[in-house]
Amino acid sequence: MGEVDPAFIQEPEHRPKISYIEGKGVPLIDLSPILSSNNVSAIEFEGLVKEVGDACKEWGFFQVINHGVPLEKREKIDGASRKFFAQSLEEKRKVRRNEKKVTGYYDTEHTKNVRDWKEVFDFAVEGPTIVPASHEPDDKEVIELNNQWPEYPPELRETCQDYGQEMVKLAYKLLELIALSLDLPADRFHGFFKEQTSFIRLNHYPPCPTPELALGVGRHKDAGALTILAQDDVGGLEVKQKTDGEWVRVKPTPDAYIINVGDIIQVWSNDTYESVEHRVIVNSERERYSYPFFLLPPLSTMVEPLEELTNKKNPAKYRAYNWGEFISNRSQSNFQKQKVENLQISDLKISE
Ligand code: OGA
Ligand code: NI
Description:
Layout: E1 28-30, H1 32-35, H2 42-58, E2 61-65, H3 71-85, H4 89-92, E3 104-106, E4 110-111, E5 114-115, E6 119-124, E7 129-132, E8 142-145, H5 156-181, E9 199-205, E10 217-220, E11 226-231, E12 237-240, E13 247-249, E14 257-261, H6 263-268, E15 278-280, E16 288-295, E17 302-303, E18 321-322, H7 323-335
Parallel strand pairs: 1-2
Antiparallel strand pairs: 2-14, 3-6, 4-5, 6-9, 7-8, 9-16, 10-15, 11-14, 11-16, 12-13, 12-15, 17-18
Helix pairs in contact: 2-5, 3-5
Bound molecules: N-oxalylglycine (OGA) and nickel (II) ion.
């Protein structure tokens, strides 16, 4: 490739710095106290809850180790994903995502109207997925969608489904810790996910000839409840540090997962925890793979600050919104450049 397609080029103020800060960065939390229920002292458990709460408040991001997800399952999905992406574009496009089929392969995603330097394969963890039939806000019609699975590699489907179940299990454990850290009953959030639209994305970031101009994923906040990300040893994820707005690189830690609070938890917690901006830097030498799991409620969910966390002195900061409408509005901007920035939860804030 000679000239880089201008669609990938970021505005100067959003271009990455080539030198970066890794610093102490995002907290690393050891989840072993919840792995085995025996032999955990109340003090140890409370310490863990506090660590999670502090990380959510100060960073919106943390890494976990001793999380209980077997390494072999992670290696398997990684192996299958590498085989899938190594195929020709023509093969991959046989399972291409489009406006009727929301899962599958995609290589022209945009974040904030600039094209991302990546290709992805999405699958829903609990199928079939129900999605709105159109992007018209008044159109209440929905269609049911099944995942699209490629022929090759043949093990991809089972590997992905299996890994998906592990992510759901870990998500519930994390939700419990987050609920407790907000002084809520441990299972306070569980009911929201009896059915879910959660999905996993296989991300492949090829080497980029102009890493100083483009981004693997442009700056954004995750719209869902919680994200659980596996990244490889290349690194490139940057988080906007809350204290000073600097971009901080998340250091790859073998077998760790990176957790971040999404917009829905921000709204449920009435801003006690905030969904933090992040982005992905690419490089000219090494390709990178990452696998986020996005924990998402059913489309019919109305998202609003939890009653227990609001009162006269601390009134709800957001009006209730419908998750399905929100995400359908948002997903339009993934398909084409829009004239305006996409919908954000800040647009739903109640003015003081
Ligand atoms: C995302 C994301 C980070 C990464 O897909 O929302 O932030 O490291 N990905 O791939
Ligand atoms: Ni993200």
